[in-house]
Fold this protein.
Amino acid sequence: MFWRKKERFDRPAAPEEVTLRAVGTVHNDVERPRPHGWGRVKSRIEFFPEHQPRLLGLNAFSHAIVVFYMDLAEDAPEKPAQLTLESGHRYGVFATRSQLRPNHLGVSVVEVKEVAGTTVTVKGLDAINGTPVLDIKPYLPEYDAEPDADIPFG
């Protein structure tokens, strides 16, 4: 649905459940979840053939944002509301990068190394082999970086 600027707009209620479909799959040498060491990992994201036209122009960007579904976290025995980090400080799961989130979504800024056909090769993606990819977007520094952002640890 699209509206013209001058038309009245009454936003419909947002859905409580959302169904998403993967657009591709991660392929790399990382077979199990790990907390660190993702910066040097090279991954291939194999997009399903129907998405090849959507990749046009992505190779012009040095970095992209990948949204993925951490499917193995679904089976985690615990779904904590809070975590104690290595710093010793306790934070709500929404204040961490933990995979133990209510919806198990991952978001990573990656370096785009190559786009060839339906394959996008990236560096720095913190997703293991076989992870479903939901979306990829170009990284735009004017929107995606805040150099003066505060973080409580680090």
User: Anything to note?
Assistant: The chain has a mean pLDDT of 91. The CA atoms of residues 74 and 104 lie 7 Å apart.
